[in-house]
């Protein structure tokens, strides 16, 4: 069977975008707008207009005001890559704008021009929002076609088991992602992110050194099981990059990767997709991965938890974070849309530094 329809990146004038953010462009410092860091290590939130808690006197940054400004978008991409995830409140954004935003952030960050937007392997062609928009819902998977099982307290997924970076089973995985929740429950369904920079910095130097010599196999096992369950005969190809093809849904990546924008090292394994460490025996691999997965999920000092409100927007960098939903919704509806940009093939630059090492070298406090 011929490959299904190839996804089309949103029509952006790449040359104009890059030129407008080139060396001559004004340097934008988004920290000059009213914001706060959610935790020392991860998360920055821009204040919404009228937020009585803000005493900084700084101007309010509206996401809408910078969607067409390449210099500001370049600064936003850098901030997301440094802080892992950036939040906006009262930022009404269409699905098309979500796609353009993440694609522009990736291009301005220097991703290969062959990297477009991801199409989930199980997405049926021609869904109403477009194939590149992922519908995030606690009721359905992959659009409105497949209903999830009813969730009860005893059938809730275990949050600790769901930490992941998006689509690491792809040879060219994601850089930037943008999620907004359009049907917001009164309470419940928070999202948590964890810093891959801090996860790595929190390991002892001998352990870090050991991990730097390793690679790991990632596989989309959950999607393979879902396809079997729902009778999906074939996965989509290509999935946003000429390298994201094939029906195996697997890729080998370094266990520690260097972020191309910050230059910082981060841990790059996750419980949802990482199957085994290639260079170790199966027993060694299982034990070490279990330790690393627990290291990510059990240390709340490297995590941030975000409560969704109407028109909240989260933009994160999958190269340096992990995330999970909170499975406390029962029958309350929570639905949103996500755009997912593809970045570059993960790599480790042996000369790169950890986040703490780099900031200390610059004389900067890690939480600033
Ligand atoms: Fe995800």
Automatic annotation (TrEMBL):
UniProt organism field: Cutaneotrichosporon oleaginosum
Region described as Disordered: 344-368
Pfam families found in the cross-reference section: TauD
GO CC field: cytoplasm
Any GO MF annotation of the entry: metal ion binding
Stated name of the protein: Putative taurine dioxygenase
Methyltransferase found in the keyword field: no
Chain intervals with Basic and acidic residues compositional bias: 354-368
Keywords: Dioxygenase, Iron, Metal-binding, Oxidoreductase
Location of the TauD/TfdA-like domain: 63-336
Family per record: Belongs to the TfdA dioxygenase family.
